[in-house]
UniProtKB/TrEMBL annotation:
Swiss-Prot/TrEMBL keywords: Disulfide bond, Membrane, Signal, Transmembrane, Transmembrane helix
Keyword Membrane in annotation: yes
Domain LamG-like jellyroll fold: 115-251
Designated name of the protein: Alkaline phosphatase family protein
Pfam families for this protein: Laminin_G_3 (PF13385), Phosphodiest (PF01663)
Membrane-crossing segments per the record: 947-967
Length: 974
């Protein structure tokens, strides 16, 4: 094709619609606008166009720079390929999203610019991701210039007048474009195919380039990072890249555009086949929330530029709430209950659905209704239509696409009467007489019903009371200071008291290496250091911006997140995640994990969590994860640990207080384990190095069993999810290698009296073969108790419920599981007669109280020796004159019918419970199937499948109880 016809057709079409145009080599005509442009172009042809004096790489010449500066190729990342283009009939470079060329620059080269410049390139984007940043020709790092895709739009970045100016234009994948960015004084302009698309005016003139030498690289296929490398790599083809020290005018740019298409042979495209996808978790809780990701792609680049279809679902089970992360050009309309109409003019990528950045149309939010038992429902597509240039081309497609998704909605357990997601003493207290025994058999002790994780991006070691990191300016590395003047720059009162007086906190914790966000968030949420997983799972910021977590599409998850672990243990419970940096929700948390993910506006994530806590949904929620991005934004913009950084950090007092106040207002504070940490620190305006200012972080833990004010040691971001799961008494998946890094953070229940809580007190007083368990400081009307007694070799003779009813009395692995209900407030909980004593004293290891309102109280606990007075049933030494001990619980043949395996305690003569509560069923954590010995799943109310969990049964882990951490017995079972 002649160069003028191609270029003029493209210019005219852009003037009319600003859409990409596919040109046939035999196109024969142009419209009046194009003819006028051609005339003007012919008059301009003779005008001299200056040489690209700063940078000029045309791949006809390989990677050689033909400018006057003859910039040398400094480094090659990955494997970019130079090959002949069948469309342009010349050599081009192909970048695959993991490759780039780096050309070192210097301050002397930046000084060649005054207030004007032009960036020019010819590019074909193989995909146009709807979110994230992808650079094709760039040199930026807190200053600089670049041509890129940002959130699905072509963008020219130019740091002019103190900030980035970003004119934009629409582009489509698979189309060659001539692109030019121009800075002329305070004007920043973007041209596509010789036509002005957008202009932004800065408040003043002057281009600011990167100040740090680590960013002095002109990059093709990406952008410079701060440490001599590249970032924001792109999947695109590049014909040439040029940089001028002058501002080219409209006529010069039109001529250059014409020249770039000379000899081009671009065929007209035809309708391609389209694929549709519905991606989400396969289950969710009733009366909760659920996300559904809509996807579409093409089998090849084609002419279809708009699709539409209906999404159909059962409105009695699902109600539509809205869309987030929608691609540009996507609309979703509720046409009637149970039917949505989806329209998309977003480009159809050829990527598979795992590349969500180019294929996901949006994420839908639904609320789930009240299920009648566990229910399965089907979501499906109908009435698909495809269009090209306004014409319906559906019939021209080889196949008609459709998609469907099966969803299981889990009903709350019928024994979870108080609706807190677990079955415990509160449910026993509320249960009617017909259900009390069943509730007792299934009850488990959970000091924490919820975990809230609050991650502060870029906060490093912000709350260390002994020192602050500080840098006078961004050219020096921050160091720790202890002088009063520097320490006073941190003005946080609330956060300092919270982290250092109410919580237990480590300031020797480290982020995982490298000190970059995605690497640390994947470690936080998947419980394994980033460097310890295969390369396929080593998420980077770029990958998280474009691709689902690497377990996507695999039949078996290799590196489950905390949400997958909770999902296995408690599928009937809700989880939630809020993030200002939404790559966490999209590329680090699995798309099929059972969690509602919502993007937060800047500085709003703490308040979103507070609002969620106040909602009805929180009552049944196990884990809430939150990321706040503001301090990292400040660090990248104006520097880490300087005066501005510490001034901005003051806002976090209000942020933390919003969440804590919400928990206290709703009465959930005691039953919530709060974990707060930083993903990394920083220096200058970046991070990623191994310097302590980048690597040092804090990890704080708060909750009713936490030793307030304790200074912890160690910890990494890979320990966050294991710590949370332990608090919920859910065993971590084998893939998680993190751990509860400092067990001294937590108190046993017997140690909790040192916190001086105004709470109920339980005392077990032992006197020889007798013990009395009593209640003091009653604040609530107690109607049930659920306890675990360590027998330490003793054997049970008789138990007096002191006016209550024993619903469960069972011995397993040397521990008594005892559940009692009361019609009125008890003063004495139970009396125990021991048939024989062990080597050590029996003691209450853990106990939970259930109130008349269904609340659960984790009381203070004391095991002590005392004088219980004379035993009317055993005034002597407990022996008959012949030396036998009839009170010892033995039959004449020496067997002990009251040792926890007799029919009187639910067992038949062979020692097995005919109701299934014998061998294999821990009474404080039975699995509901009649087979469990000790709670083998955190899902106490269901079937017992999934990850092993630590409940109140033998060997089960509890954040803060002896059973949990093994602090008294040095026993942990995660």
């Amino acid at each position: 094709m002649k160069k003028k016809n191609v270029a003029l057709l493209m210019a005219a079409a852009l003037l009319i619609s600003q859409n990409a145009v596919y040109v046939n080599a035999e196109a024969s005509g142009v419209n009046a606008a194009a003819q006028q442009t051609e005339t003007e172009s012919e008059e301009q042809t003779a005008q001299e166009i200056p040489d690209a004096d700063i940078f000029d790489v045309d791949f006809i010449n390989g990677t050689e720079d033909k400018s006057a500066l003859t910039n040398e190729l400094g480094a090659t990342i990955g494997n970019p390929v130079i090959e002949m283009s069948s469309e342009l009939h010349k050599n081009i470079a192909k970048f695959d999203g993991s490759s780039a060329y780096l050309y070192p620059f210097s301050q002397e080269k930046y000084d060649l610019f005054d207030e004007n410049l032009t960036m020019e390139c010819m590019v074909k984007f193989n995909s146009v991701p709807s979110s994230g940043e992808y650079e094709i020709f760039s040199n930026q790092q807190s200053g600089g210039i670049g041509i890129a895709l940002e959130n699905g739009e072509l963008t020219f970045f130019a740091h002019v007048g103190g900030a980035y100016r970003t004119p934009k234009a629409s582009v489509r994948p698979g189309q060659w474009y001539h692109v030019a960015g121009v800075v002329e004084g305070d004007s920043v302009r973007l041209y596509v195919n010789g036509v002005l698309q957008d202009e932004v005016t800065a408040p003043s003139a002057g281009v600011h380039f990167p100040s740090g030498s680590g960013a002095w690289n002109m990059v093709l296929g990406g952008d410079s990072d701060g440490s001599g490398g590249a970032q924001f790599l792109i999947n695109a083809d590049l014909s040439f890249a040029r940089l001028y020290s002058s501002a080219l005018d409209d006529e010069q740019l039109l001529t250059l555009s014409e020249q770039s298409f000379e000899g081009a042979d671009i065929e007209e495209l035809k309708p391609q086949n389209v694929g549709l996808g519905l991606i989400s978790s396969g289950g969710t809780a009733e009366e909760g929330e659920w996300n559904l990701n809509l996807h579409a792609n093409g089998d090849q680049i084609g002419s279809i530029d708009r699709i539409e279809y209906d999404l159909v679902y059962d409105p009695s089970l699902l109600s539509y709430e809205g869309i987030q992360h929608a691609m540009s050009g996507v609309t979703v309309t509720e046409t009637e209950e149970g039917r949505l109409h989806v329209v998309s003019s977003a480009p159809l990528s050829t990527d598979d659905f795992g590349t969500y950045g180019t294929t996901r149309l949006g994420k839908l939010n639904f609320k789930t209704g009240d299920a009648q038992g566990d229910e399965t429902t089907l979501i499906r597509t109908e009435k698909f239509k495809a269009y090209a240039g306004g014409s319906d081309v559906t019939a021209q497609m080889e196949t008609q696409p459709s998609a469907e998704k099966e969803l299981k909605i889990y009903a709350k357990d019928s024994l979870d009467i108080n609706g807190d997601g677990i079955v415990g003493a509160g449910d026993v207290a509320l249960a009617d007489d017909s259900m009390k025994a069943a509730a007792a058999q299934q009850a488990a002790i959970y000091p924490y019903k919820h975990v809230v994780i609050l991650t502060l991006d870029g906060a490093g070691q912000a709350w260390n009371p002994d020192a602050v990191y500080y840098a006078e300016n961004n050219s020096v590395i921050p160091t720790k200071r202890t002088d009063a003047e520097t320490m006073a720059k941190r003005t946080n009162t609330y956060a300092m008291e919270l982290l250092n007086e109410e919580f237990a906190t480590s300031y020797t914790a480290q982020c995982v290496s490298p000190s970059i966000s995605a690497q640390n968030y994947s470690s936080i949420l998947h419980g394994v250091p980033w460097l310890d997983v295969p390369s396929e799972y080593q998420v980077t910021n770029d990958i998280a911006s474009a691709e689902y977590y690497a377990d996507f599409g695999k039949e078996t998850s290799l590196y489950s997140s905390i949400f997958k672990a909770v999902q296995e243990a408690f599928p009937e419970r809700q989880n939630a995640a809020f993030a200002e940096w939404t790559q966490i929700l999209n590329g680090i948390i699995e798309p099929d994990a059972q969690v509602i993910g919502k993007g937060s506006a800047s500085k709003e994530s703490f308040y979103d969590v507070a609002d969620y806590i106040r909602s009805n949904a929180f009552k049944n929620t196990a884990v809430v994860y939150m990321q706040s991005d503001w301090l990292d934004h400040v660090g990248h913009s104006t520097g880490y640990y300087n005066d501005i950084f510490w001034s901005e950090a003051a806002q976090y007092d209000d942020f933390y207080k919003a969440v804590v106040d919400a928990l206290k207002e709703t009465g959930e504070y005691d039953e919530t384990l709060i974990i707060t940490n930083a993903d990394h620190g920083g220096s200058g305006t970046s991070h990623g190095s191994s310097d302590p200012s980048n690597m040092d972080i804090f990890i704080g833990v708060g909750g009713q069993t936490v030793d307030s004010g304790k200074r912890l040691e160690g910890g990494t971001n890979a320990d966050i999810s294991p710590l949370a799961l332990a608090g919920l008494r859910i065993s971590q998946p084998e893939s998680m290698t993190g751990e509860v890094f400092d067990e001294s953070a937590f108190l046993t229940q017997e140690e909790m009296s040192r916190k001086n809580r105004d709470v109920e007190e339980i005392t077990m007083t032992r006197d020889g073969s007798r013990a009395l368990i009593s209640l003091d400081n009653a604040k609530n009307e107690v109607r049930a108790v659920d306890m675990v007694v360590s027998l330490n070799g003793a054997e049970i003779g008789d138990i007096d419920a002191k006016g209550g009813e024993i619903l469960r009395q069972e011995v397993k692995d040397g521990e008594l599981y005892l559940t009692i209900s009361y019609d009125s407030q008890p003063k004495e909980i139970a009396g125990i007669e021991f048939a024989s004593l062990g080597d050590d004293q029996a003691e209450v290891k853990e106990i939970m109280l259930g109130t008349a309102e269904g609340e659960e109280i984790y009381p203070d606990l004391l095991n002590t020796q005392g004088d219980l007075g004379d035993d009317p049933a055993d005034p002597g030494d407990g022996e008959d004159p012949d030396g036998s001990n009839p009170g010892g619980g033995e039959d004449p043949d020496g067997s002990r019918p009251d040792d926890g395996e007799n029919p009187g305690s639910g067992a038949s003569d062979d020692g097995k419970d005919p109701n299934g509560s014998g061998d294999g069923n821990a009474p404080s954590g039975g699995n509901g199937s009649g087979t469990g010995a000790g709670q083998t799943t955190g899902r106490a109310a269901k079937t017992g499948d999934g990850f092993p969990a630590a409940g109140a049964a033998a060997g089960m882990m509890c954040a803060g109880a002896a059973a949990a951490w093994g602090l008294n017995r040095k026993r942990r079972n995660i």
